[in-house]
Hints:
A hairpin with a 4-residue loop joins β4 (60-65) and β5. This protein has helices spanning 32-42, 75-88, 136-143, 172-176, 182-192, 229-242, and strands at 2-10, 19-24, 46-51, 60-65, 70-71, 97-102, 105-112, 119-123, 128-131, 156-159, 163-168, 197-202, 211-217, 222-225, 249-256, 264-273, 276-283, 285-294. The protein is α+β, with helices and mostly antiparallel strands and 295 residues long.
Amino acid sequence: MNKSFLQVDVFTSQPLRGNPAAVVFDADDLDARTMQRIAREMNLSETVFVLAPESPDTDYRVRIFTPSSELPFAGHPTIATASAVRAHRGDLADASLLRQACGIGIVPVEVVPTEGSPIYWMTQASPQFRDTAIDPGEMSTLLGCDANMLAAMPVEVVSTGIPWLIAELRSVAALASLRPDLPRIAERCRASGAVGVTVFAEHEADAPVRLRLRTFAPGEGVAEDPVCGSGNGCVAAFLARHRHASALKGGYLAEQGIEMGRDGLIHVEWTRNGDELTVRVGGQAVTVASGTLHL
């Protein structure tokens, strides 16, 4: 059995930056155990398996695996798959809207042309918030920093498709200096029902890039995720709830992967309609490898 695949770097237009994901095509005849073994073989944050759609209102279906488990949704693999499908399927090569079916339902991905490569905008699931009993002392222990480096904001579990433990730091310098306790993070996230921790800090007010993020998911076999689309969506929802509760819309440019040498840029926007909050996350993508799995 042979399966073709592409490896795509996401949230970048430059090869070997951003966050890589593998996209395996025509995977309908692979069982979950084999998919998990392939994801371990790829050893990337996520590997995506593209399957035939089950309904006419979708273009394709996916299953997404970390090296350790299956996820119902993930951000950068969604963009990777949209880019890879446009390259792989002639009938979708010029599509401006792709409809992905996954564990959280249908995720629309809008393709917006730019002077360079297009930006892929995904609409994530309606945000959900859950309080935690994590105080600044415990959070600082998890992150390997002083408690006074944490901003005076709550620590919450936020989900726009998958749940992340979200915390804010007072400065980008504090963010860059973290020395996370990965075993403790894995244990605490399991107890909190989160896949990992995403932390962020703000740049100066006039900086073109407003936020920097870092994401740790050791329980999923990912010590640090270079650039996390779902984590960025959760941070947007967190800020819309706590810092911009009366605003009808907002948006910004964020960076991630700096500390890993895998710089990525993430476009984020959110809109509010009554109690309903809609989060969109966008980024560019570039194919860096292609090949065949011999199974």
